[in-house]
Amino acid sequence: MMTDVRVPTLGESVTEATVATWFKKPGDAVAVDEMLCELETDKVTVEVPSPVAGTMGEIVAAEGDTVGVDALLATISEGGEAAVEPPKDAPKSIDAGAEETKPREASANVDVMVPTLGESVTEATVSTWFKKVGDEVAQDEMLCELETDKVSVEVPSPAAGVLTEILAEEGSTVEASAKLAVISSGDGAKAAAPASEDAPKPAAQAQSGGKDVEDAPSAKKAMAEAGISRDQVTGSGRDGRIMKEDVAKAVAAAGAAPAPQASAAPRAPVSADDEAREERVKMTRLRQTIARRLKDSQNTAAMLTTYNEVDMTEVMALRNEYKDLFLKKHGVKLGFMSFFTKACVHALKEVPEVNAEIDGTDVVYKNFVHMGIAAGTPTGLVVPVIRDADAMSFADIEKAIAEKGARARDGKLSMAEMQGGTFTISNGGVYGSLMSSPILNPPQSGILGMHKIQDRPMAINGQVVIRPMMYLALSYDHRIVDGKGAVTFLVRVKEALEDPRRLLMDL
């Protein structure tokens, strides 16, 4: 029986997608809900799972093809014949004992491949293996974690069976689509386990100290960077599994801070006693990329910062008056970021060079605003991009910020979600920063730094009044943005926040 694989619903107002990658080829065995291919739309990346178990038939839409909603992508042969079809490289039995070998023929070796890493990412580093050769694994159980320049990628098991071979050890660099390991699946899988084992191990075998589950890889990294042990963290995941948010809570409770990063300058001489008490940790690929990009930004752009301050009285009053009604109607809290995003969009219309970039000897002006919102995570700074922020309402902006922020903290952002920004907002105020000079996110020409709101005495109409004030900083590329434009931009942001009615009237 043949089953059609069709394009799923792509979302409101999205009518077509491009076939980005096929993860299966004709003749491959597929399980129910196993990922077959990935589609890309203007907004999101969509994974297409298999509707049935069987054998991959014809691929109708090749990589690079544009397809509409419900278009036919491929066919799958399901049922009896597909279930017992031996692997192509399996020897065919011709003797009288063929019937006895059927269960072994029904098993197959399944390759564990490097998943799609994202646009322009061609390699990754194997960070951690959570299984070893001989371990039983369940379908979709996490096998290992890879690190790329931007994100951590978890690799699930494509099938249930026994991990029989690991081809890429921890610390090794692998190319996109490289083979990581081999899993023996099916009836013959148990025979692939080491003979010394009397019984198959459960997916999460008991470890020392009574810990019987593998923690989230992002949590392990966060614990290493914060310098805390597993015993200091209480896991909230299934069976006590430690999640990233658990580490964040433990760090906050203990007042711990991430270990300082190594300096690029030559190390000063240290005594043998001091060296014995040091800990050397290799920088993650994300941290290496952050370091490289920030230094490149300083070396390339003629970066300058201008400052101003804003009286937050009106924004705070407006927020307090409508926050309950806003939450009730839109299902999301009304924060300050939507006000700042709207104010920046308003100012960028008047000073378009802050929203432009240099390409060789050309200046590229953007007639749209893809707003980058810098977010700190346990593994480093990432900048998810809210596309077409200039066309969004306050509620749409708050929803997008909440969704992107949660995905950033969980390490689930795709490369596409962090590319294409035209301007960035960085909020150091959430950490208590009173004033700082943000570094440009190339190739962008401007970044706004928000800071802590602090009550200060201000002279208002000849009287000293206590007002909630915030320092604002605009770092800009002086090659394209003149001082007049930078100051004008910051003043327009200040005016819009001190009198939010200007946003409604486009003043």
Automatic annotation (TrEMBL):
EC number: 2.3.1.61
Co-factor(s): (R)-lipoate
Record domain Peripheral subunit-binding (PSBD): where: 214-251
SUPFAM superfamilies in alphabetical order: CoA-dependent acyltransferases, Peripheral subunit-binding domain of 2-oxo acid dehydrogenase complex, Single hybrid motif
Pathway named in the protein's UniProt entry: Amino-acid degradation; L-lysine degradation via saccharopine pathway; glutaryl-CoA from L-lysine: step 6/6
Region (Disordered): 80-106, 190-240, 254-279
GO biological process, alphabetically ordered: L-lysine catabolic process to acetyl-CoA via saccharopine; tricarboxylic acid cycle
Matching InterPro entries: 2-oxoacid_dehydrogenase, 2-oxoacid_DH_actylTfrase, Biotin_lipoyl, CAT-like_dom_sf, E3-bd_dom_sf, PSBD, Single_hybrid_motif, SucB
Residues covered by the Lipoyl-binding domain: 2-77, 109-184
Compositional bias annotation for Low complexity: 190-204, 254-271
Keywords of the record: Acyltransferase, Lipoyl, Transferase, Tricarboxylic acid cycle
CDD domains with a match to the protein in the record: lipoyl_domain
Molecular functions per Gene Ontology: dihydrolipoyllysine-residue succinyltransferase activity
Stored Pfam families: 2-oxoacid_dh, Biotin_lipoyl, E3_binding
Reactions catalysed according to its record: N(6)-[(R)-dihydrolipoyl]-L-lysyl-[protein] + succinyl-CoA = N(6)-[(R)-S(8)-succinyldihydrolipoyl]-L-lysyl-[protein] + CoA
Functional description taken from the UniProt entry: E2 component of the 2-oxoglutarate dehydrogenase (OGDH) complex which catalyzes the second step in the conversion of 2-oxoglutarate to succinyl-CoA and CO(2).
Family to which this protein belongs: Belongs to the 2-oxoacid dehydrogenase family.
Assembly notes: Forms a 24-polypeptide structural core with octahedral symmetry. Part of the 2-oxoglutarate dehydrogenase (OGDH) complex composed of E1 (2-oxoglutarate dehydrogenase), E2 (dihydrolipoamide succinyltransferase) and E3 (dihydrolipoamide dehydrogenase); the complex contains multiple copies of the three enzymatic components (E1, E2 and E3).
Name recorded for this polypeptide: Dihydrolipoyllysine-residue succinyltransferase component of 2-oxoglutarate dehydrogenase complex
Organism: Pseudosulfitobacter pseudonitzschiae
